[in-house]
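Consider this today:
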Amino acid sequence: MTFLDKLRSAERLNRSMLCVGLDPDPARFPAHLQGDARRIYDFCAAIVEATADTALAFKPQIAYFAAHRAEDQLERLMAHMRNVAPQVPVILDAKRGDIGSTAQQYAIEAFERYGADAVTLSPFMGFDSVQPYLQYHGKGAFLLCRTSNPGGDDLQSQRLASVPGQPLLYEHVASLAQGPWNLNGQLGLVVGATYPTEIERVRSIAPHLPLLIPGVGAQGGDAAATVKAGLRTQGAETTGPIIVNSSRAILYASNGTDFAAAARAAALRTRDELQAART
């Protein structure tokens, strides 16, 4: 199955648009695990097992593992997710952006070392920084487009005087991903839930691309507004999928030994809120 096939299957099977972000911070772990970076795998594996039937995707953020020298734990976690939740695609949140042989090595890291179904990328070094990932047929790549942080305005909302129509930079990225860069139908876009108007603009430019939307939950993005702005359907079928990420609100729903059960409850609430907005 390609990444998009797997995404559509998980959406139907789990009735979900929710992406569970895995950003493990040992300082925020429940009391019996707190501060112990050796338990990152244990913490994340428990979250995965508790939410496997609620999620459209899982999204481990690589920096939270690398900062604690826990790449080996990430490898184990990726294998664990494929074992206990084979129906749920995994997006490696790496935000890589380099060219030539370096980009090739990052693609090997994402797809061969970790076995991810998709990866997040920065597109701002141009198409040759994206192309090595597209050599992995069936894998997905999400380009940063209109991100959820306030500083995104510094670059993403600047007009490009040299491009016909003088689009904003994020609009131009969406156009490239919808058109000439999307050689094998593998690209998606990252747009923040904190900017629903911009989500709607991106969707109008790229009506069928999957949108990875962080910012619901702890960052304050509105679930209903996000679904209205980004999801497109025809009858019961989704024609423009959205993958709505929530990390901290799920991971740290409890600081007790019931953390996994609390994470499941938080994931179910968010999933159901998103589904309710669909109708």
